[in-house]
Give the backbone structure.
Amino acid sequence: MSGDHRNPDYQVNSGSKTNDSHKHKDKHKDKEHRHKDHKKDKEREKAKHSISEHREGRDSEKKLRDKEKEKLKHSNGSSDKHREKQKEKRRDEKVKPIHIDKPKRENENGYAREKSPPPIKSEPDDNGFDPSPKQKPTKRERDDEEFDCKPKKVKKEDEKKAKKRRQDYDDEEEEEDIKPKKKTRVKKGMEGKKPKKEEEEKWKWWEEERATDGSKWRFLEHKGPVFALPYEPLPLHVRFFCDGKQIKLSTPAEEVATFFAKMLDHEYTTKDIFRKNFFKDWRKEMTPEEKSKITDLNKCNFNEMSEHFKAQSEARKQMSKDEKLKIKEENERILQEYGFCLMDNHKERIGNFRIEPPGLFRGRGDHPKMGMLKRRIRPEDIIINCSKDSKHPKPPAGTRWKELRHDNKVTWLVSWTENIQGSIKYIMLNPSSRIKGEKDWQKYETARRLKKCVERLRAQYRDDWKSKEMRIRQRAVALYFIDKLALRAGNEKEEGETADTVGCCSLRVEHINLYPKMDDQEYVVEFDFLGKDSIRYYNKIPVEKRAFKNLQLFLENKQPEDDLFDRLNTSILNKHLQELMDGLTAKVFRTYNASITLQQQLKALTSPDDNLPGKILSYNRANRAVAVLCNHQRAPPKTFEKSMQNLQTKIDDKQKQLATSRKQLKTAKADHKASHDEKSKKAVDTKRKTVQRIEEQLMNLQMQATDREENKQIALGTSKLNYLDPRISVAWCKKWEISIEKVYNKTQREKFAWAIDMAEDDFEF
DNA sequence: GTTAGTACTTAGTAGGCCGCTT
DNA sequence: AAGCGGCCTACTAAGTACTAAC
């Protein structure tokens, strides 16, 4: 019963319903500037809103405008104090005994549901596959026990293999894109046994023992980061004007000016905050003389610079093949030199080995710091982390590192502090690495443990809705949202430092509306807030009566800008969750619900009779259900309409072709009836086959069209990469004899190598 | 319990790349 | 060979979670 409380139908269909979105596209215009500013964003905003509207009907324009006003009020800074006061005031209040009606009949799982299709059964029982045994006291140990990885290799062997790997490096690298020279070598070297060799050569870290002492590695050697290219001053003919007068800028000021010039086409350079932040930071780079001359950004003319860069990028496109190849080879060389490290005897790919270049900060949504100068990172800003006994990376000539440390309790190789938020940035390994893979695997094992006790937890939080204590009720309702709607935890954030976004625990009164009755539904909660990346979450959903009554209680005597859950934050919630299940945190629910939904949807949607494209469509639809659940949106591709049209043309052509073929078949049949000879019979057979083939082609095209249409503004990648236990997909592929390439591209296959290797067709999440 | 700091995961997008068509 | 379109990757922002110190 676990996880079956959502409405799969709505999820699957919501994408396909969006094609009439244009009807509503103007509705929320007034809200747009809140978080999106360039053209694309606008497009997407419309689309997003149309999704929302499809989910639950109309939305009132006025309400949004009101909200807008409140937002403004809110942003003047006084409301925070107000919120604090509100909190203070209620801190000691006890929950008043409130009258709570006997719950009406609910679904067996306790989730009131309306208009839902029959739930898909899931089996929460153990299936013998789950490798996680009983719990252990400490976290580290628990993590280790989660894994059923018997050490199948002794260490010596492992090291030998690793050494060989290092030597053989060229052979195993990039085995997928077989370059001609490699092919020859392969042929010469191993007589066509390549596939087998490939398998043997890949390091199966998941078959090895893991450290139990909290250390992340024993040996780490790397070459340090690649720095951004130094600034190249503009040629003299590219001029800059201020107030009509040409000014030759000093190099530092010029560099910052070019950052702005490169962005001129983006709408955000017209935004006040962006311009203000940029100008302030730009002036810091100016000489006193420049400072005195350049006092107003509006009088600055960057056109020549902008043109210069456009011409430059045009020239880059027009480069000859040779030149392009040269650049490619150079990049490859850098990748080979800096893109890998040696960790515990294995060469591992580094994720991001380049230091972020300087530029203007562009946060997502309505970011108060947009336009600020992201400064250039120098070796003196860099902390290097590696083994003491490794060959330490050398700083560029004449420079030194900020620090060299040897901390094997962390996974990063390089770090620096970024100047916009003052946060630390890291260079870490690629998702295909052992260190990331183990963690990923562990994440899904934790989610599977949640599966085993989720019903208990659900019963518990429902019970807590009746608690005498306000904080417990709030905790329980928040958890209900996290579980039912897959909301993020919602950490507190510093106001004014980032865009105003929220998650579950940080929801404010203004983000929800309660409707005791709405159309044919009862106890409907309407959510409307900006979540991570300022992506709008909009949903109207019936909730259980008791939860609804609690929400009404939470709202009493509060202002729109007050916290909905004023007695709750993520650390309280997670502390509680930790007590319920070892290793449980709020985000595990998202992983669990995403994965269980995929598994259920795959079961429900895959039909044995479907052909390959049909099965792929089912897979994508199951994936889509998860993406909708997790609110993973994307901007509709720029070329969406056009590519849809092209596909439609193809379909039309195919239809015509089919009609013709059918006619021909008919004729052939008639001929055969008349003549009854062998030749005409053969003709009929041929024609029949042609018709069948064309029919199938047509179906496939139509399926493709459906898939694409449904996918217009839903991003599948995020859930596939971060929320769906890959073993579910692998098992599905094995069960239906579909090659894994149809579901995972090369990168994804590398990341999920562990799952591809270990999951059988009977894997159950 | 609050806050600051750190480490790591999750997120959407721009633009490059690559294969296909014309 | 050029242009197109879609996929993929690199990039980096923005989350979550945890720890330690007060």
Remarks:
- Residues 597-758 of chain A form a domain with the Topoisomerase I; Chain A, domain 4 fold (CATH 1.10.132.10).
- Chain A has 26 helices and 15 strands.
- Confidence is low (pLDDT under 50) at residues 1-200 of chain A.
- Residues 537 and 631 of chain A are 7 Å apart (CA to CA).
